[in-house]
Write a structure and sequence with these properties.
It contains twelve helices and ten strands. With 289 residues, the chain is an alpha+beta fold. The chain has three domains: 81 residues, Winged helix-like DNA-binding domain superfamily/Winged helix DNA-binding domain (Arc Repressor Mutant, subunit A); 90 residues, D-Maltodextrin-Binding Protein, domain 2, CATH 3.40.190.10; 78 residues, D-Maltodextrin-Binding Protein, domain 2 (3-Layer(aba) Sandwich). It has a five-stranded mixed sheet with strand order 4-3-5-10-6, with helices on both faces. Strand 1 and strand 2 form a beta hairpin. The termini are far apart. The mean pLDDT is 86.
């Protein structure tokens, strides 16, 4: 049985909106046409995909299975189309996703080293938001990314190119702010829970970028842990950075889609390794393993 991608996109829209009316508006089609397409898809698959009521539309168990399988497939298809279009562009360039001031201080050296690599391609930097890198890689909106761990591993390959110490970002009035260094236990953080703590801070306070998080720290609302290079670029009144003696280092990685066969991406990855080695970072990485 072959199913076209269009009805599957319709199905995903209804599943995400939980409403045929909202999904039809999002898709720009008439409601009856959407309903017919879903009924046809149900007939083709032989299962009921939605439980319909006057108030809400809910996925059935088979519908939930289909949604989980279809979303990454459609995402990969869209990514393939974007990459194909870029490959045919007359002045194409490799897109490197980087969050501003979160490159470990390597970006300029990386771009210079990549330019002289065999198979090098022109590189355009795509500035992105917090934890947005892997989405751009999966959707084909970026070819590679320079980012700190953690990240969503699904469909992504990566090499660590630098390790650096982390610091605690504390309100200046915090009891630990005058200290020359602190321990994770002083902060109430377990070594294996550092990244979970950062995610909790982001989700709990609804922040969208580092500037917002630092503003909350300055107000005494929360604390966090940052790579030292990031803290160095963000001095803030009311925020004090204190080294953490027993904190695992932050890992900066160069990442790319796991199915990538781009020679330009391979050249960029080699350049990142060369920059890390020239700065003595590769030795630190091996020593930490």
């Amino acid at each position: 049985m072959a199913v076209e991608s269009r009805p599957l996109r319709y199905f995903v829209a209804v599943a995400e909106e939980r409403s045929f009316t909202r999904a039809a508006g999002r898709l720009g089609i008439a409601g009856p046409a959407l309903s017919r397409a879903i009924r046809k898809l149900e007939a083709e698959t032989g299962v009921r995909l939605f439980e319909r009521s006057t108030r809400v539309v809910e996925l059935t168990e088979p519908g939930a299975v289909l949604l989980a399988q279809v979303q990454p497939v459609l995402e990969a298809l869209d990514a393939a189309v974007r990459r194909t279009a870029r490959a045919s562009a007359p002045n194409r360039s490799l897109l490197l996703a980087v969050k501003a001031d979160a490159d470990g201080g390597l970006l300029a050296d990386l771009l210079a080293a990549a330019a002289i690599e065999p198979d090098a391609e022109p590189i355009a930097v795509r500035l992105c938001g917090w934890r947005e890198h892997t989405r751009l890689l999966r959707t084909g909106e970026a070819d590679a990314a320079l980012m700190f761990e953690p990240y969503d591993l699904d469909g992504i390959d990566a090499d660590v190119v630098a390790l650096e110490p982390r610091v605690a970002a504390l309100p200046t009035g915090h009891a630990l702010a005058p200290a020359s260094r602190v321990l994770l236990a002083d902060l109430g953080i377990a070594a294996e829970g550092i990244d979970e703590r950062a995610e909790r801070d982001i989700n709990e306070h609804g922040v969208h970028d580092l500037a917002q998080l630092l503003a909350l720290i300055g107000l005494g609302t929360t604390t966090t842990v940052l790579p030292r290079s990031v803290a160095a670029r963000y001095p803030r009144p009311g925020v004090t950075y204190v080294p953490i003696e027993d904190c695992p280092p932050a890992a900066l990685v160069i990442a790319w889609p796991e199915r990538s066969r781009s020679r330009g991406v391979a050249a960029l990855v080699r350049a990142a390794a060369a920059v890390a080695e020239s700065r003595g970072m590769s030795t630190a990485i091996e020593a930490s393993r």
